[in-house]
Each structure stands twice: as C-alpha cells, then as structure tokens.
User: Which sequence fits this backbone?
C-alpha cells in the first residue's frame, strides 16, 4: 500500500483544492484521509455520506471531588501548568499529566477520559474517506490524525485499494508530523511569496529530518514569476523535484463555491493538476 | 492592550493584517507597539521588516527528566505514570523520548529510588528585534518538535509593548488557544469562500468558549460567495474591515512589503479600526 500526504508549511496554499482534484483523478482507485483535523475542509468538496462515527478521546483531564478535598494546596503547588486555582481544575489548562492525583493525600482527584471529537468513515463519489472533527480548542490533534490514518488503512484493506491520499495541515508541529510519519511521498504545496518560500524551507527540513521523500508544487506560480524561479532554484539545490506549477486562476474558487473539485470543472489549473498527477503517480 | 489576529483557515491574511496594523499604529514618541508572532511553526511576520535590528536571541527551555542509572532499579513506575509515553523501561535501560515529554514532573515524584531528576532542553528560540517604531518578537520551533505551547507562551510573555498585536497560527486547536489566551480582543481574518466560512465558525466557537471579545475582517473580498456576510449578519458579529482581492496588494505581499506602507490610505483605515476596537472593549 502506498501513501501520499499533501502538506505545506504556510497555510492557505491550496492543499485541499489539490487533494480534492487528485481524488477526482484517482476515483475508484484510492482511499482519502482528511488529516487537517482542526480545520477540515475536504468534506466540503467530497460531500461524504457518513457510514460510521467513532468517538475520539484526547487527553485525560483531572477532576477534584470537593467533598474529599481537604484544601491542602499540594495539587496547586505541584501543577506545572497552573491549571488548578481555588481547588478547581481549569480544563482549558489541564494537560492531563496526573501529577495532582499523584500528590493528593485525600484521593480527591480523578483522571477522566474526555470526548474531544469524532472520526468518520464515509463514502464519497470518488471513493472511501476517513475524516474527523476535533472539538474547538481541543488538544491532541496528532493523536486524532493517527486515528484517521489508521481508519484509512482499514478502509484500504477492506476495499482492496492500494493508495491512500492524505490532506494534511499547515505548519511543522504535532499534526503535521503525525500526517507525515511513514508516507511514501509528501507533496509540499507552496506559493511564490517571501513567506511561502521561508515556510517551504522549514517543512522540507522537517521532512528531511524524518527521512521522507518529497516533491513540491508551486501554486499561483505566475503571481510573482521571479519568486517562483527562486523557489525552483531552491528545490534544485536540495534535489527536490518540482512536480507541478499551477497558475493563479479564478476557476479554483469558482469550483469550491460549487462544491466541486477543480478538475471536475476544467480550466487551466485543472489541466496543470492533471499533468502534475502524471508526475506524482510515477514517483509513488 | 493586546489584540490577537487569528483565523481558522490558513493563508487568509493574518500576517498581512497584523503587519499592516503594527506599522499603522507606530509613530515616534507614541505608545510602544510590539508585534508578537505566535505562529512558532512558521514564523514569518519578521520577514516584512528587512531593516530590523536584532536585540535579543535566546533559547526556550523546558524541563526534561534525567535518569541516574546507578540508582535506577528499572521498576518501570516512571514509564507507567507518564501520560505522554515519553519513557519506556526495558530490562536494563530507560529510554527517554524528550519530544513527547510535557515536563510535568510526574516521573520525578513517583520514583521510589530518587533516580529521576530534571534538566532542561531547548524546544526552539525566541527572537526580539526593532524596526523603526515597531518591536517584533517571534519564536521559532526547533525542527522535529511537536509541542508548540511552551514557545508560544514564552513569546507572549516577552511582548512588553503598551499595544501588542499577536499574530496567531492557523487552526482551531491548542496552539490557537494558547495564542489568544489573555488577549483583550481577537480579530478573525477570513475570506468569503466555503473553506473560509467553515473554519471561521470553528474559530469563533473557540473564542466564545474563552469569552474573548471578537470581530471579523474579510480579506480578498470580491471573490467567492456572499455566505460569510450572511453568516455574520445572522450571528450579529461585527465586520470591521474588508480588504479587496487586489493583485497589487498580493504582489506587495509576495515581495515581503507591507502594503499599508505602499498604499498609505490603508494606514488611516487600520488606525481607525484599532480605535473602533478600543471603543468596543472599553
């Protein structure tokens, strides 16, 4: 089974629009996974029929039983996250370490599992989709990404499909690392801006750190051709293949508004994505 | 006064707005303006200030355990108590995975042999620079690190200006929560597209839960559909500004130039918006 993740250092470079189009191009041959669990948008194009919903438990959180609490201060002193004030736990600050339970002489602290989101197994017009929603402001997005990826692997085995396409999140932290672990190829989407280039270098460094094979897509390359050439040179220097160059065109947003993939609607960007997929398919 | 600039979706224009606001408020002899970039995974607000002078650069240190193997009996209690699976005890060795450690201290407390003590390790760096009348502070997460919150907290603690503009990371999870916590007002930057609206709604729910006063700025207006506007009207959420989809603005941005410096009418608009925010929170 082969897995490809679409990621970006900088946000808003076009990951989800590209994944939706790749889903249309691989229709019936792949499983899709939306691993941008705290801003999941792939479902807005893939329009899934949800088949199964699973609960996601993130970190445990401490609860203090006020009837047992002797107000001795031990937990407040020991908590490194300043999550306990007036013998009450602030759930937004609690990281679930359990130190308060450990130091409480009155056994007044209980660590409880907390529902932090849902993961879904769905059908779409292109094939099976694993996706999720993390409740607003929750932690442990990396753990939910791992859960979605495991569900995608199960779907692939069940449907005898040997390709998984992953829509990742921006950045280089916890959910990104969880999206990249063990993939055969990471497609890094960037744009020809000074911030796009800076963020591209950081994510390429992270991918190299974990030994992951990468390719780059320059989206909106004609917005600043000079900056695009700069990115091409940077990729050449790092021996990273530029697999696609997509023009800046209104057809991307027009397709999004209609709930369609760019390649379903056609246009110059659709053609460029199809061409890019030809390159990526060989790479995987 | 601390104003955070956030968005659920990435690439909606947080940094464009945060840098524009910072230069529009800054003037000699006036209150000190600090731009605090809390997107520690991909910090890039400082790129818009090429003439900055670096004032300070320091490591962000977090606690991490060290095992005294001479005392350790490999009983496994530290590994059992660790909520983050940052330790594994094999028959004759203790494995530590520092990037998973939250530095809570549970292993030190539970060890019956007093074999666990603490040292510190760096999870990234904090930078402070001055450019004209704007002070910029940002954090840079070390490669391979998963946890952003200690570094975000350090950036915010270091932002000392009388007016602080906090540029937040994208998303709606713990990094956003840590970045907006303690700010007096949050301006959410969105675009009027289905993706923009979906993620805006999640981000607004985070701010409602945290009880932070909030309003919205629509960037790249003129593209997409009208649904964000309908949503704001229905939910009675103030729309403070619209920045049009304009190739000229996008090109200034792509070159690392602050568009409000190049199109000075925007400086007055940003300053006016901040006055409006001040009225809303007073």
Assistant:
């Amino acid at each position: 089974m082969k897995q490809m993740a679409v990621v970006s250092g900088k946000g808003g470079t076009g990951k989800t629009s590209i994944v939706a189009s790749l889903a249309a191009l691989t229709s019936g041959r792949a499983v899709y996974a939306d691993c941008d669990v705290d801003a999941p948008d792939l479902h807005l194009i893939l329009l899934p029929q949800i088949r199964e919903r699973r609960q996601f438990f993130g970190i445990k959180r401490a609860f203090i039983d006020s009837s047992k609490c002797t107000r001795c201060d031990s937990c407040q002193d020991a908590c490194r996250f300043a999550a306990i004030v007036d013998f009450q736990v602030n759930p937004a600050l609690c990281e679930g370490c359990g130190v308060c339970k450990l130091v409480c002489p009155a056994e007044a602290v209980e660590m409880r599992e907390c529902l932090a989101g849902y993961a879904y197994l769905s059908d779409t017009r292109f094939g099976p989709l694993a996706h999720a929603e993390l409740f607003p402001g929750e932690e442990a997005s990396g753990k939910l990404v791992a859960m979605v990826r495991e569900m995608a692997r199960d779907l692939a085995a069940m449907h005898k499909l040997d390709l998984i396409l992953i829509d990742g999140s921006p950045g280089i932290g916890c959910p990104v690392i969880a999206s990249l672990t063990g993939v055969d190829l990471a497609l890094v989407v960037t744009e020809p801006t000074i911030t796009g280039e800076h963020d591209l270098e950081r994510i390429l460094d992270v991918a190299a750190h974990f030994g992951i094979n990468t390719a780059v897509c320059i989206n909106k390359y004609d917005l600043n051709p000079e900056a695009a050439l700069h990115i091409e040179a940077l990729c050449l220097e790092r021996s990273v293949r530029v697999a696609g160059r997509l023009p800046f065109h209104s057809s991307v947003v027009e397709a999004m508004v209609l709930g369609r993939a760019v390649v379903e609607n056609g246009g110059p960007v659709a053609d460029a994505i199809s061409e890019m997929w030809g390159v990526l398919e060989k790479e995987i | 006064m601390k104003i955070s600039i956030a968005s659920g979706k990435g690439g909606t224009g947080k940094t464009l707005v945060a840098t524009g606001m910072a230069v529009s408020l800054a003037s000699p002899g006036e209150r000190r303006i600090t731009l605090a970039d809390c997107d520690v995974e991909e910090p890039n607000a400082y790129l818009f200030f090429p003439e900055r002078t670096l004032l300070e650069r320091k490591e962000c240190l977090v606690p991490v355990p060290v095992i005294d193997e001479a005392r350790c009996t490999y009983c496994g209690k530290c590994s059992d108590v660790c909520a983050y699976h940052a330790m594994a005890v094999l028959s004759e060795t203790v494995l530590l995975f520092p990037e998973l450690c939250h530095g809570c201290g549970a292993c030190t407390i539970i060890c019956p042999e007093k074999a666990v003590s603490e040292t510190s390790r760096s999870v990234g760096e904090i930078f402070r620079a001055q450019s004209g009348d704007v002070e910029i502070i940002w954090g840079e997460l070390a490669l391979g690190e998963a946890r952003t919150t200690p570094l975000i907290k350090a950036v915010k603690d270091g932002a000392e200006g009388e007016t602080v503009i906090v540029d937040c990371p994208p998303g709606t999870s713990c990094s956003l929560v840590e970045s907006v916590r303690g700010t007096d007002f949050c301006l959410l930057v969105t675009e009027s597209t289905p993706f923009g609206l979906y993620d805006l709604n999640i981000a607004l729910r985070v701010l409602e839960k945290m009880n932070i006063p909030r309003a919205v700025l629509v960037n790249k207006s003129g593209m997409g559909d009208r649904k964000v506007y309908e949503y704001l009207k229905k939910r009675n959420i103030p729309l403070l500004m619209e920045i049009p989809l304009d190739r000229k603005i996008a090109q200034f941005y792509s070159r690392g130039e602050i568009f409000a410096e190049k199109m000075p009418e925007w400086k007055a608009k940003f300053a006016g918006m901040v006055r409006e925010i001040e009225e809303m929170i007073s």
